[in-house]
Amino acid sequence: AVLALMALPSEAQQVRLPSGKGQYAVLSSDGPQTRKGDVFTADKNVDLEYAGMRLRAEHIEYNEKTHDSLAQGYVQFDFENQHLQADEAHYNFSTGTGTFKNVRGSVNIVRRPNPMVLVSENPLYFEAREVERYADDVLVVHQAWITVCDQERPTWQMFAPRARIR
Questions:
Q1: Burial zone of 126 (CB within 10 Å; 0-12 exposed, 13-18 middle, 19+ buried)
Q2: Which of 77, 117, 112 is nearest to 97 (CA)?
Q3: How buried is residue 27: exposed, middle or buried, by Cβ count under 10 Å (0-12/13-18/19+)?
Q4: What pLDDT, on the 0 to 100 scale, is given for residue 9?
Q5: Are 100 and 84 in contact (CB under 8 A)?
C-alpha cells in the first residue's frame, strides 16, 4: 500500500512508493502533489529518488506501476558518476533508459593507464541538444560539444553530431 502524504499543505510533502524488489521510490516536493490512478504528480522543487538514482525538477510525473517519469523545468539527474542538467526528461527508473533535452552534463570516467595517451582527472563535460541514456551506463549525445577542460573556459572542445559515451 502507498503511504499517505505526510505534511501540511504549506510544508514540503513526501511520499514513499513501493516499487518492487523491496525498494521504494521517495517523492518529495515543496508544492502540491496529486495522484490519478498509478500516476503521481508533484510541483515546486520536486525530488524523486529510486535505486540510487535521483531526479529533480520543478514538475515531475511518476507512474509507480511502469516507473516512467516526466520531468520539466530545471531538470537534474544524478546516478553514480553521471550528472545531467536538462530542460526536460523522459526517464524509466526500472530500465535505466531515458531521453533528456537541451543538456549540460558531466561523466567522471575511469581511465586506464596508457603511456601513449595524455589523460586528465577532469570529468568529461558536454552540452547536447539531446541525450539518450541506456542501461549499462551508455549515453548517446546528439549535436554535442565535448571537452575535458574547464567547461566555462575550455582550452579545446570538439563537436559531434552523434557520439557514444560509455
A1: buried
A2: 77
A3: buried
A4: 41
A5: yes
Q: For 57-80, give one letter per residue: b (16+ CB within 10 A) or e.
A: bbbbbbbbeebbbbbbeebbbebe
Cα separation, 98 vs 3, whole angstroms: 27
Task: Give all strands (DSSP E) within 52-123, no chain letters.
Answer: 53-63, 68-79, 82-92, 97-107
Helix, strand or coil, per DSSP, at residue 130 = strand
Answer yes or no: are the C-beta atoms of 145 and 157 closer than 8 Å.
yes
How many residues are recorded in the chain?
166
Contact 58, 44 (CB under 8 A): yes
d(CA 99, CA 97): 7
**Is the pLDDT at 18 greater than 60, yes or no?**
no
**156 confidence band (pLDDT: 50, 70, 90):** confident
Give which of 128, 134, 121, 115 is closest to 157, Cα–Cα. 128
